[in-house]
Amino acid sequence: MNDNILRIAIQKSGRLSEDSLKLIKECGIRFDNGAGKLKTDATNFPAEILFLRDDDIPGYVEDGVAHLGIVGENVSEESCKDVDTVHKLGFSKCRLSIGVLREQEYNGVQDLQGKAIATTYPRLLEQYLKSHDVTADIHEISGSVEIAPSIGLADAVCDIVSSGSTLLSNGLKEVETIFRSEAVMIASKHLSPVQQDLLDQLLFRIKSVQVAKNNKYILLNCPVDAVENITKFLPGMRSPTILPLATEGWCSLHSVINENEFWENIEKIRQAGAEGILVIPIEKMIV
Ligand code: ATP
Ligand code: ZN
């Protein structure tokens, strides 16, 4: 096996696929992802991409068939495979929750004692129940978990929820959240030194893409004597860039602003004398 390339496993088709491909492309790795392919070579980075079912990815990474994989933490944790979780990727956020029929009275996790619970996540459910000293009858099923209570197969379900609408449309209410998940990058524990170096390069690129997404480039015009005040609301980077304008006493100020602080601070920046504010997305940010 070639120890000088990274084989990266991603989901072939499903909720993780699009964002996984997008992330790899945003890291500047180019490859031909012709429809229906199971494997493709990157053209400008020593990597191969494998397209697999998400449930198979942790096992392939444990065995070293793939060196890296992108999966939901829910799948990785449930699989109990011996892999390293090297980075959280911030997409496919969801939770694993317990739901019961809407009309059923529910006062707490102890109400699940002795109940039948249908799930595709028996290990995570078992761990959760055990930590709350509850013993239930766990029915492992592979799909359409949410209909189990209405057809009398179980008293409750434990399933992936994002908005909660699937639970609601099946007459269920969400009563416990047992695990919060997002897509993660997992890695084999047996990388060669070259592969470890390639992984470090990839993580550096991923982090630069993630930081850029959380920040915006901001340009504004203001009177020179307002700079100090405005700068208080722009803590990004080391210090803002200030360029003189043709109009005497005015300047153009450039800085970076965090997405989360943007709306809160923009009004204060305006009140402090800023005009002609432009906010521009950043593609990559090296900090
Ligand atoms: P496969 O055919 O590869 O086995 P799957 O049907 O098991 O796919 P998907 O439904 O594509 O899996 O979900 C993949 C992952 O996406 C889940 O394991 C979870 O981490 C995440 N996910 C699932 N549902 C949602 C959702 N509603 N919103 C956001 N992320 C979700
Ligand atoms: Zn799956």
TrEMBL record:
Keywords attached to this Swiss-Prot or TrEMBL record, sorted alphabetically, are: Amino-acid biosynthesis, ATP-binding, Cytoplasm, Glycosyltransferase, Histidine biosynthesis, Magnesium, Metal-binding, Nucleotide-binding, Transferase
Query: Which cofactor is essential here?
Result: Mg(2+)
Pathway given for this chain reads: Amino-acid biosynthesis; L-histidine biosynthesis; L-histidine from 5-phospho-alpha-D-ribose 1-diphosphate: step 1/9
Give start-end of the signal peptide. none
**Which GO biological process categories is it annotated with?**
L-histidine biosynthetic process
Instruction: Please verify whether the record's keywords include Nucleotide-binding.
Output: yes
Sorted alphabetically, the Gene Ontology cellular component annotations on this record are: cytoplasm
Location comes to:
Cytoplasm
Enzyme Commission identifier(s): 2.4.2.17
Describe the reaction catalysed, as an equation: 1-(5-phospho-beta-D-ribosyl)-ATP + diphosphate = 5-phospho-alpha-D-ribose 1-diphosphate + ATP
ATP phosphoribosyltransferase catalytic domain ranges (all copies): 53-207
Keyword Ribonucleoprotein (UniProt): no
Which PROSITE patterns does the record associate with it? ATP_P_PHORIBOSYLTR
Q: How is its activity regulated?
A: Feedback inhibited by histidine.
Chief location of this protein within or outside the cell? cytoplasm
Q: Which residues form the Histidine biosynthesis HisG C-terminal domain?
A: 212-284
Q: What class of enzyme is it?
A: transferase
> Could you tell me which PANTHER family the record lists for this protein?
ATP PHOSPHORIBOSYLTRANSFERASE, ATP PHOSPHORIBOSYLTRANSFERASE ATP-PRTASE
**What HAMAP family does the database record attribute to this sequence?**
HisG_Long
Biological role: Catalyzes the condensation of ATP and 5-phosphoribose 1-diphosphate to form N'-(5'-phosphoribosyl)-ATP (PR-ATP). Has a crucial role in the pathway because the rate of histidine biosynthesis seems to be controlled primarily by regulation of HisG enzymatic activity.
Q: Which family does it belong to?
A: Belongs to the ATP phosphoribosyltransferase family. Long subfamily.
Protein name stated in the entry: ATP phosphoribosyltransferase
